[in-house]
Write a structure and sequence with these properties.
Pfam families: DJC28_CD. This is DnaJ homologue subfamily C member 28 conserved domain-containing protein. By secondary structure, the protein is mainly α. The chain has a domain of 56 residues. 57% of the residues lie in helices and 0% in strands. The relative contact order is 0.09.
């Protein structure tokens, strides 16, 4: 039994109707493209396209919530969002939950 190659990007482009209709098709890759690894190229292309990962959006939302935090109910909402953030962000960027005692310190950490 032959295993089929899994082309995720190709599948996405095909579903959107853009598989063979994109800028740069058939043109040689730039020299800068060849100097970076796949992840670095993805980051650059995504940034140029205005894409923000979900965890970055959530990070900004948490930062705003922390700066407006008024009490324990707000802390509970923020901590739920921190749990979600920690599940989807890169491991080295995970954060601890906050308390009313640490809120002023966390305002600086989440900027």
């Amino acid at each position: 039994m032959e295993e089929k190659y899994n082309d995720l990007i190709g599948d996405i482009l095909e579903r959107s109707g853009e598989k063979d209709n994109y800028e740069g098709k058939g043109k040689p890759l730039s020299k800068n493209y060849l100097k970076m690894d796949v992840y670095q190229n993805f980051q650059k292309i995504a940034k140029d396209a205005g894409y923000l990962p979900e965890w970055v959006k959530l990070q900004k939302e948490i930062s705003t919530l922390i700066s407006c935090c008024q009490g324990e109910e707000d802390v509970q909402v923020i901590n739920e969002k921190i749990k979600k953030y920690n599940k989807i962000c890169p491991t080295q960027l995970q954060r601890r939950q906050i308390t009313m005692n640490t809120i002023s310190e966390e305002k600086n950490n989440w900027k």
